[in-house]
Design a protein that fits this description.
Bound molecules: FE2/S2 (inorganic) cluster, fe (ii) ion
Low-confidence stretches: none
Helix content: 10-25%
Number of helices: 8
CATH class of the largest domain: Alpha Beta
Number of strands: 20
Structural class: alpha+beta
CATH superfamily of the largest domain: Naphthalene 1,2-dioxygenase Alpha Subunit, Chain A, domain 1
Largest sheet: 10 strands, mixed
CATH architecture of the largest domain: Alpha-Beta Complex
Oligomer: single chain
Length: about 375
């Protein structure tokens, strides 16, 4: 690949870039998989795709969580199909029934003495992946040598205080969006402080570019609203409208940010009323899936999905294909963002596209430049 100063148009639209990113970014990236409370008993597992790999996290007999590549050491069959479940004691490959313990060791294989008289069984355990846990959030990296402490360190001391397992916190149904845009378009839109007052005129209505700031924290970024000069965890409009009722106990401590972007694919939004974690997963050139998990006070709980434009009850997926109203009329800023990201994707698919200038400022479009620098330095 040639050296670029900005991401080229091709990076949003071509199969070649999609494959390139799978290997250079996502085969070596920290991806959010779940929270410690998801793993209640030994044998509980979750799987997630990152880059070319499928990774499983599994609770061992000692309740320790371990991450492995989800592939059989015999001929390579993917072992676990579901996103989550329980394997009660062992992982058995359905092809020739090689059997692995929860610690990844190869425990047994049929007809060993006849068919594999020379096998070194100890060397044929599941391939490890890296796992990192911070504030009950679990991240995996397909590269077993990846350094979690180095990745998370810039955020230390700046995190949200939320306790997801307190009695005044409850998890809502996850939201799954199929997005007709490249994952980078969604990230860049999330980091863009220039659009808040304009695209979101009817919803967020700001802040203006000079009244918000993205602060760099290593490869990550933290957003604050700054309308009165100080850094706040909510924009002033929301602070004024929401008041103080419904605040969860652990989120009372002030001083945390409003949005945390963790390179490359995680967005965390803590508020006094709850916390949401979004994960972006590229599925094809110009397409991605976003999964959003949301923890709120139980008094707020309702199945929010049915109020979201484009939610299909049968598939459980939210998609612009199912919109029945214009996105600017539905009063939901996330739907406004989906609309604009998909429009931007269509624009970028035109060969007439050329880069325009980015708006200067840490509350405007500088963060898009920082994101692109980080991405390009990794590809
Ligand atoms: S591929 Fe798994 S047992 Fe043969
Ligand atoms: Fe937005």
């Amino acid at each position: 690949m040639p050296r670029y100063s900005r991401l080229p148009r091709e990076s949003y639209v071509t199969q070649e870039w999609f494959e390139h990113e799978r290997k250079t970014i996502f085969d070596n990236a920290w991806t959010f998989i779940g929270v410690s409370g998801d793993f209640g008993k030994s044998g509980d597992y979750q799987t997630v795709r990152s880059g070319t790999s499928s990774i499983m996290v599994i609770a061992g007999k000692d309740d320790q969580l371990k991450a492995f590549h989800n592939l059989c050491r015999h001929r390579g069959t993917e072992l676990l199909d579901e996103e989550k479940g329980n394997v009660s004691g062992a992982i058995v490959c359905p092809y020739h029934r090689w059997t692995y313990g929860l610690d990844g060791a190869l425990r047994g294989l049929p007809k060993r003495s006849i068919c594999f008289p020379d096998i070194d069984q100890n060397a044929m355990g599941l391939k490890p992946a890296a796992i990192g846990i911070h504030k009950d959030l679990i991240f995996i990296n397909p590269n077993p040598d990846a350094d979690f402490d180095k990745w998370i360190k810039p955020l230390l001391g700046k995190e949200w205080p939320h306790n997801l397992f307190a009695s005044d916190v409850k998890e809502a149904a996850p939201l799954i969006y199929d997005l007709k845009c490249d994952w980078k378009i969604f990230v860049e839109n999330a980091l863009d402080g220039y659009h808040l007052a304009y695209l979101h005129k009817n919803t967020l209505a700001g802040p203006l570019p000079e009244h918000n700031i993205w602060e760099r924290a290593g490869d990550h970024l933290i957003w604050y609203a700054t309308e009165d000069g100080a850094r706040h965890r909510l924009p002033m409009k929301m602070r004024n409208e929401a008041g103080t009722s419904g605040i969860i106990e652990s989120a009372k401590t002030p001083g945390y940010g409003s949005v945390y972007y963790l390179f490359p694919s995680t967005l965390i939004v803590p508020t006094p009323y709850g916390l949401s974690i979004s994960k972006l997963h590229p599925t094809a050139p110009g397409r991605c899936r976003m999964t959003v998990r949301n923890w709120i006070g139980p008094w707020q709980w309702k199945d929010e999905r049915k109020y979201i434009q484009g939610f299909n009850r049968d598939t459980g997926i939210i998609s612009s294909e199912n919109w029945t109203k214009h996105p600017l009329e539905c009063g939901d800023f996330q739907t406004e963002d989906v609309w604009i990201c998909e429009k931007l994707q269509r624009g970028l698919e035109s060969s007439a596209y050329e880069h325009g200038p980015l708006a200067k400022g840490a509350g405007a479009e500088d963060p898009i430049e920082w994101f692109q620098e980080t991405l390009l330095s990794n590809t």
